[in-house]
Design a protein that fits this description.
By secondary structure, the chain is of the alpha+beta class. Helix content is 42%, strand content 27%. Strand 11, helix 8 and strand 12 form a beta-alpha-beta unit. The chain is elongated. The C terminus is likely disordered. This is GNAT family N-acetyltransferase.
Length: 356
């Protein structure tokens, strides 16, 4: 096994990585492609990849970020919506040996892919990641939505018509290349984070730079896609995500609060689903985290996992002491809807106070 910076992987190794993913049978999530790891390496000098060989040929890849004193984390932790080891099914991997070879006592993850048998036993929590299945075409998806949530669909369609009448002709661009539209989306999202009392991700330079970098990434397995809903040529909602040939990973959606009464974010997601299906995409992955719009739009869900693989030793003990109390507190709140709702209201109130 060798551990390298992502940029040191040769063309042959990158091709093997893509081939393993293509043959894995797992959804073709763009976060699991080498292009995402290479993009993170552009903004995170701690990015590394462990290359495990079997008989001289690459058999597995583990992308990670190496922190102080041997503490490791999934590549892009905090923004990556799918994580794990890329491995041939026949490769005999041992988690402890892999971590030892990487010089790590821990490897943290918060969106571990379902089916990652090497690390799922180390998960502390499982969460649903909500999906929209448009593999049979948008018409089939819409028909199912009308049956599941007739009032939701009628209301959203009526709001889109009203938006067109009152704000100007509505149009949608699935793959917008205007950098000004991306800047607008990031400004909306930053304001939304602050308004809801959450940490502004785009205030962190590495995240905003990563998004701008991925906006220019064009590869079959991982391409940045900026989708924009316009009214009279004014952007009213937008989304930036990553796509492969068959999966659109929904990442950063937001909208202009001035148009909130028209629910432009919901209109945007339906337009995205229609355009994605026409482009051959089969699944829109809305990600983990409960939200009313996800409940309305979803056709199903897949599990993702949070936790840490730990190699026995003093470092593992210290990690548990530092992480478990916080994790258990979050779990306690999450499992009690009334308490979770109170926490959300408190966050929004804190956001309003910060805004004054």
């Amino acid at each position: 096994m060798r551990v390298v910076r992502p940029g040191e992987l040769n063309a042959g190794e990158l091709d093997v990585w893509r081939e393993i993913r293509a043959k894995s049978g797992a959804p073709a999530n763009p976060f699991m492609e080498p292009e995402f790891t290479l993009a993170v390496a552009h903004v995170r000098p701690s990015a590394r990849v462990a290359v495990v060989r079997d008989g001289g040929d690459p058999a597995a890849f583990l992308p990670f970020e190496k922190g102080r004193l041997g503490r490791g984390r999934a590549i892009g932790l905090g923004v990556s919506d799918c994580q794990g080891v890329v491995t041939r099914p026949e490769a005999a991997l041992d988690a402890d040996e892999l971590l030892r070879g990487c010089g790590l006592f821990a490897w943290e993850f918060d969106n571990l892919e379902a089916g990652q048998t090497l690390f799922v036993p180390d998960a502390a929590d499982a969460y649903p990641s909500f999906v929209m299945d448009v593999g049979a075409g948008y018409e089939t998806y819409e028909s199912g939505l009308r049956e599941r949530s007739p009032k939701f669909f009628r209301t959203t369609a009526a709001k889109e018509r009203r938006l067109g009448r009152q704000a100007g002709e509505v149009r949608f661009v699935f793959d917008e290349r205007d950098p000004a539209a991306l800047r607008q989306l990031m400004a909306w999202k930053s304001a939304q984070y602050r308004r809801t009392g959450r940490r502004d991700r785009f205030a962190r330079e590495w995240i905003s730079t990563l998004v701008r970098y991925l906006a220019h990434t064009r590869a079959p397995g991982c391409s940045g896609v900026l989708s924009v809903l316009y009214a009279a040529d004014r952007p009213v909602a937008a989304h930036f995500g990553l796509r492969s040939r068959t999966v659109l990973s929904c990442w950063f959606p937001s909208y202009d609060p001035e148009f909130a009464r028209y629910s432009p974010g919901l209109v945007l997601h339906l337009r995205m689903a229609e355009a994605a299906a026409a482009a051959g995409i089969e699944v829109l992955d809305l990600g983990r985290g409960a939200a009313e719009y996800k409940d309305a739009l979803k056709t199903g869900e897949i599990p993702v996992y949070e936790g840490a693989a730990l190699r026995p030793g003093a470092g593992a003990v210290l990690h548990r002491l530092a992480r478990e109390p916080s994790r258990r507190a979050h779990g306690f709140v999450r499992e009690r809807p009334a308490l979770a709702a109170f926490a959300r209201r408190a966050l929004k109130q804190a956001g309003r106070l910060r805004g004054h």
